[in-house]
Specification:
binds iron/sulfur cluster, 222 residues, globular
């Protein structure tokens, strides 16, 4: 858990928020900036991760009286049942909660336990095998949720073409789509935003910055 800080990305960018980052991921994206949640080769996961009860986590989060809680990972849907219980406890406690997911694991009860599902399908630049990163059945289920939006991390023209294909195949309206550059420092972020802006404008999609990178660079826990 970390915060209060700001949500740096997507539809809620700029809002004050507390983050709950869940451990474990089913993918291994080349540019992952939270590999300490899943990569036991590079990190000591016995030190990085803690096993906590949902009640404990909810109490600790709600004590901060956040208006927004972001449930992220890793891949939170790998712990769907527990994450749904946590999300409901946080909602009952008076805070809004949104989920960040790669859209590769069925959301189950988690789908309707949050007020917003921000899905980031992984594109070619992630270097993850297509069949692992594009689970069309899961993506279609998420696309059918009225409170789901899609945020594409774009690093190359190939990524952008793929984003177009995914949006077309899922029948997403422009208002549900965000483009965001891959970047871990402010200069690269500015370059990426400049490169992506015309593409977002021409498609009627939203452009997302990464405010946490602009303000804090790649500092962890921001
Ligand atoms: S899905 Fe997210 S947490 Fe998992 S490897 Fe990719 S970027 Fe990292």
């Amino acid at each position: 858990m970390f915060g209060p800080t700001i949500q740096g990305e997507g539809p809620s960018a700029g809002r004050p928020a507390v983050f709950v980052r869940l451990g474990a991921c089913n993918l291994a994206c080349a540019w992952c900036d939270t590999a300490y949640t899943w990569d036991g080769d590079r990190y000591d996961l016995s030190r990085e991760l803690q096993i906590r009860s949902t009640g404990d986590v909810a109490r600790e989060v709600l004590a901060l009286r956040p208006s927004l809680v972001v449930l992220t990972g890793g891949e939170p849907a790998l712990q769907s049942r527990e994450a749904a219980r946590l999300a409901r406890a946080i909602t009952d406690g008076g805070s809004a909660i949104e989920l960040e997911t790669s859209g590769t694991v069925p959301l189950g009860a988690l789908a309707n336990a949050v007020r917003l599902v921000v899905t980031s399908p992984k594109l070619s630049s992630s270097a993850v095998l297509d069949r692992a990163r594009l689970r069309w059945g899961v993506l279609a289920e998420i696309a059918a949720l009225p409170h789901a939006v899609f945020k594409f991390v774009v690093q190359s023209p190939t990524d952008l073409r793929e984003a177009d294909e995914i949006v077309a195949r899922l029948g997403l309206s422009p208002g549900r789509v965000w483009l965001m550059p891959e970047a871990t420092h402010a200069a690269a972020l500015a370059d990426g935003l400049r490169a992506l802006a015309p593409h977002a404008v021409s498609r009627g999609w939203s452009l997302s910055s990464r405010l946490q990178v602009a303000v804090w660079g790649d500092e962890r826990g921001r």
